[in-house]
Amino acid sequence: MSIPEVKKTPVFGFLTVIADPQHGLFGGYLLLNRLGRPLEFHCTAPVKPNRAQEILYGPTLDAFLYGEQIGQTLLDHATAQSQLLCTDQAAVMCVRQHVEIPVVLVLPDGEGAESGAFPENGQKTYRVDPAHAPEPHWTYFTCGPNRLAVPAEVERDRHRVTEQWSALPETFDLGEPFVRIREAIAEAQQAMP
Fold first, then answer.
1. Ranges in the chain, pLDDT < 50
2. Which residues pair with 141 in a beta bridge?
3. DSSP for residue 174
4. Nearest-10 Cα torsion for 138, 99, 24, 189
5. Which of 106, 126, 128, 105 is nearest to 116 (CA)?
6. pLDDT value for 7
7. Which pLDDT belongs to residue 167?
């Protein structure tokens, strides 16, 4: 008699960065199971760029800080492997260059709709970048009640996201975990001098 194979529970990651005028940038990474229950939570110490970094990185500073320095550090410290990484910060999307999993930008309600980015029959790609931005083209789409975007150069992520979405309840709000992260970081900030 063989032991039944244990099906691996899907893990979904939520990564955001909060800017605090006094302390700097705080990153938070929450890993949830398909029911929305926490498996792991990680946050960074505050990160504050110095003036030389601001000058030398120029318009690429946010992508470097949010995606590479904060995002990649948080992902490296997690013990569980996420099948999908969600963020609510466009600058975090550059972490996609360093991971194999799909990374998706969760848009606030209504964003993109006024420009026709969410047509009835599918998707469109629009240029929405300022000069020198690292991700110049976005592909917009929806999963359940969520408005999402992926960089057009990794269009395959859209299909991978929709596949992963099938493991979640149809009404799962991908924006809600970011509220939890912000509250947890605010709680941690209260303990700071």
1. 1-6, 113-131, 133-135
2. 148
3. T
4. 110
5. 126
6. 52
7. 85
**pTM for the model:** 0.82
> Residue 116: its pLDDT value, please?
43
pLDDT at 22: 85
In whole angstroms, give the CA distance from residue 140 to residue 83. Answer: 20
Sign, Cα dihedral of 37, 68, 151, 59: positive
Taking the C-alpha atoms of residue 100 and residue 83, their distance in angstroms, rounded to an integer, is: 9
Q: For residue 17, give the H/E element and its range.
A: strand 11-20
How far apart CA 149 and CA 162 sit, in angstroms, is 12
pLDDT at res. 130: 47
Contact 95/84 with Cβ under 8 angstroms?
no
Strand, helix or coil for residue 72 = helix
Say whether 83 sits in a helix, a strand or coil: coil
Phi, psi for 142 (deg, rounded to 5): -125, 150
Would you state the pLDDT for residue 38? 96
- Half-sphere exposure (Cβ direction) of 132: Cα atoms closer than 13 Å: 7
